[in-house]
Every structure is written in C-alpha cells, then in structure tokens.
Amino acid sequence: PGFPRTLGQARALDGICELDLVISLNIPFETLKDRLSARWVHPASGRVYNMDFNPPHTQGVDDLTGEPLVQREDDRPEAVAARLRKYKDAAKPVIELYRSRGILHSFSGTETNKIWPYVYTLLSSRIPPLLSDEEH
C-alpha cells in the first residue's frame, strides 16, 4: 500500500500540494497475500527476508548472525488477508477521487518487471529528463 491510503489523508495532501498524476497498481489479492506472508525478519537488526524473492542462505536463520528469524503477527496469512480487506475498503474512495479528477493511471499485473516498463513510460512522458551541467 502506498499513500494516501484514506480519504482523510488525500484531503490533507490536497492542502500541501496539487497532484497531477496518481499511479495505482492493481495486484491480485492472492499475490499480495502470498508475498506478504512470505516475509520474515531478524528482530535485532530489522533485516527482512522474503522466502520467495530474498530467502536467507539457511532457512529460518539470519545470514549474518545465525539467529532465528520470526514472522510478525501481521504478516501471518490470516492477518494479511484482514489487512488487505481493510485497505481495499479504505482506498476505494481515494481511487474514485483521483479517477474523478482525471489524474489516475492504473496498472495491473503480478510481476514488477512486467509492470515497471509501463509505469516508466508514463513517467518519462510526464517528467522532462534532467540535463547534465555539460548540456546547459
């Protein structure tokens, strides 16, 4: 989940700046649940591992210390499902607000490397390239 997550946050953001582009990534519920549920942490350092994308060298233990990894309560599958339902309910009016303003751009998929080129193309078309000192 990104920001703003609620209508209240969106209104507060309106008081700070005027948005001209909002990106919404539509990722299937099961994909999000699986990814978040695969997250384990080393409590002492805060190092985060994902059993699918960034697993520890030895399952269940931190790479640097060998200490056990833990799964946060809110990363357990049933907690993740509840969090995602709550987020979807809160975010729906935010999405509708930006859609009604004509500034919402939505992208759907399950893999970053497949979604990113489309997001990059949009951003590249809206943000002028930075010129180096030599080009001034």
Automatic annotation (TrEMBL):
Keyword Kinase in the entry? The reply is yes
Extract the InterPro entries matched here: Adenylat/UMP-CMP_kin, Adenylate_kinase_lid-dom, ADK_active_lid_dom_sf, P-loop_NTPase
- Pfam families according to UniProt: ADK, ADK_lid
Question: What domain of life does the UniProt record list for this protein's source?
Answer: Eukaryota
Q: Which positions fall inside the Adenylate kinase active site lid domain?
A: 39-74
Q: Which UniProt keywords apply?
A: Kinase, Nucleotide-binding, Transferase
Carries keyword Zinc?
no
GO MF annotation: an example: AMP kinase activity
Q: Which CDD domains match?
A: ADK
Instruction: Give the protein family.
Output: Belongs to the adenylate kinase family.
- Name recorded for this polypeptide: KAD4 kinase
